[in-house]
Amino acid sequence: MNRGIAFILIATFSFAIMNVLAKALSGLHPMQIVFFRAAGTFVFIMPYMLHHKISIVGKHPKLLGLRAITGLLSLATFFMAIKIIPLGSVLSLRYIGPIFGAILAFYFLSEKVNKWQWVSFIIAFSGVVVLKGFDLRVSYLGFTLALTSAFFLGFVFVLIRYLATREHYLTIINYFMGISILASFAFIPHWRMPIQNEWYAVILIGIFGLIGQIFMTRAFSLQEAAVLAPFKYMEIVYALIMGFIFFDESYTLLSMAGILLIICGMVCSVIAKNMRQPELAK
Questions:
Q1: What is the DSSP track for 138-182?
Q2: Residue-level pLDDT at 221
Q3: pTM for this one?
Q4: How far is CA 81 from the centre of its chain?
Q5: Which residues constitute the domain of residue 83?
């Protein structure tokens, strides 16, 4: 198997485990989970950056800070959503983030969106409508939180796309983790001490989050994004399986149809994005 594809599959599996652990910690405040997720990566990245003299501040601190804040909002609303609606549904809704990213990139980065991308967006959004309309477990609050997470995830994609050629990737990640940790401190009055097996879960969230981050970064350094992007949606498949095993979550045929439409639409958008416009092919 191609190493890049193998790494992306390991990364998505690691993130899926992290998501299961976060859902299992229903008794902890979402920002407390954000803290453990961020701290688990920060404590490893910061010493590495200092040792290799990688810039901590970066050249674009305002944009790095904005990327961190949007990433924090996406992660926090995601952890809030998985507490109240099925794991597979949350991930499916969150994965329309690239649609928001493409639209935002169109306006802010002047990136073109071809007609087939718009068609794929419509397919994905139809999946959102079907999923919300026929899965009664998807409450309006959970639905809103998942879409909010997707929107800010799209904003993250745009900012990373801009910063990727201007900043070291560890500087970008470190800003996200550092600001997430600082922001989570504001919610300390709502925290409580983890008990018994919760300690294992909060530690493993940090570990699997770090593993996922490393293998994801490594995968994209070995293989083109267009090749890897469809495999990223394996995280939804993992979520459906793990949700069934650990939380007894099941889905009706119509709910599954909605999830499949979202996956199909997003995979098609990856293909459409790399299609050459007819006028460019002449």
A1: S-HHHHHHHHHHHHHHHHHHHHHHHHTTTS-HHHHHHHHHHHHHH
A2: 67
A3: 0.82
A4: 13
A5: 3-112+140-251
